[in-house]
Predict the structure.
Amino acid sequence: MAGIYIHIPFCKQRCSYCDFHFSTTFQSYRQSMIESLVVEIEKRVSYLENKEVETIYFGGGTPSLLTSDELKLILDSISDKYTISKFPEITLEANPDDISREKLVSWKQVGINRLSIGLQSFREEDLKWMNRAHTSEESLTCVALAKEEGFNNISVDLIYGLPNFTLEDWRKNIQTVIDFGINHISAYCLTVEDKTALSKWVSAKKIIPANEDEQSEQFEVLVSELEKAGIEQYEISNFSKLNAESKHNSNYWKGKHYLGIGPSAHSFNGFSRSWNISNNLQYIKNIKIESDWFETEILSFNDQFNELILIGLRTSIGVSLKKLNSIQEPNENFWKKIKSMEKSEWLVVTNEFIFLTKSGRLKADYIASELFISN
Ligand code: SF4
């Protein structure tokens, strides 16, 4: 089983906190980009070694800017060249301002069966400084509309740790999402990325993001409120009702193979990782002349070990000891650290898995880095 990720590097406007790869001035080469994506889909057919494609994920950028004809062209080129499983999960990331009855109907028609909607917050003042292209009203109505049009598999994104954002504001956002009755939520803490408008405002002290204690408190409230609503945490930032986990993302975390199509997309096939050029025009040009549009790195045993730790600790299942041992047996120093973290009640070790406790999840990245083997 494998997955295909398609990166759509277009956005209407630049959100102030975002450092993803996208362009807001793309109309002149929009068609060439779509054609290049199709060419890459065809050219890299051998990458997945004929594995059945179980998930297809349109991410970005803003894939909901594509027309249904563009989506269909891409999906048709995938089904022409790859073996698709009987019931693939096909996700489209969508922004509330792009969601209309007409678009929802057309997405269904081309085969999209899961939506991941970027709501981020329901407070108008947050959406304004974030420079989101949608209003709070659109956030509130789009989910109901999607449900009316028969989308049962819906995820929404929320951001916490926002400036001037009280625990009460956060509780309200969480409750609004619970009241939608959807089955999946991804929640991310606001991070101040270099070269964003947000980082300039923070440096100039125009905006003061939440401090670490506030972030931790909001994270704890998130986990407990969702748990009460039957929405369980299955990865640090991801929560779902029973059997509604994102198959695509779960496959990343299980170490399954995936092919990334489009500028800046990453691919993984067990022993190597590759990443595409993060420049739209250069990507189109290099695809056209069939010259290196991606770079590849062969993963050493240490890289594979560290990756398994990093990804596994983020999930509720944890790190499989069997898999870890199959890469390389952890040394004495590793077990010493594990024992001390077990004592601090940050993690639990069973015969088969190492997994984080609730308090450990607050320090997941730190714990993982402590357990890494250096090259
Ligand atoms: S819409 Fe998404 S990808 Fe585009 S700028 Fe905003 S957060 Fe970034």
